[in-house]
Amino acid sequence: MSSDPIKDTTRLVETAELQEIVLESVAQLNRSRTPGEQLEVSPTAPIFGDASPLDSLGLVALLIEIEERLADRGMTITLANERALSRARSPFRDVPTLVTYLEELVAHRP
Fold first, then answer.
1. Residue ranges of the domains in the chain?
2. What is the reported pTM?
3. End-to-end CA distance of the chain, in Å?
4. Could you tell me the CA-to-CA distances from 7 to 3, 66, 110 in Å, in that order?
């Protein structure tokens, strides 16, 4: 953890913005899903796996929506890449895990 309060504040803003992007993307995806297929829109919601109604095609649609929202903010990032797919635990299982993964990608983008 950084001892620089300015740096810590900047990180919190980025985290909040990334979480907002994910939640907006989930809400957008829900607009095209039936009531029984709706994803929970909350900071702790499951995204992909046993606790979620999202299948692999739905996950791809969500990732594309997130990538487009990031691109609108000037961040070109590919979410479904070898880095994500090679992890023992999916970075797409819930909102907090996805936000942490997004933070990593944002920090390491060229």
1. 5-107
2. 0.84
3. 23
4. 8, 25, 20
Structure confidence by residue, pLDDT tens digits, 35-81: 999 999 999 999 998 888 999 899 999 999 999 999 998 888 899 87
Measured CA to CA, the distance from residue 31 to residue 13 in angstroms comes to 27
Q: Which tokens hold the place of 77? A: 């990032």
- SS3 string of 19-87? HHHHHHHHHHHHCCCCHHHCCCCCCCCECCCCCCCCCHHHHHHHHHHHHHHHHHCCCCCCCCCHHHHCC
Rounded to 10 degrees, the C-alpha dihedral 53/57/61/66 comes to 70
| Distance from C-alpha of 38 to C-alpha of 53, rounded to nearest angstrom | 7
Whole-angstrom distance, CA of residue 64 vs CA of residue 82:
16
Residue 22 and residue 7 in contact, taking contact as beta carbons nearer than 8 Å: no
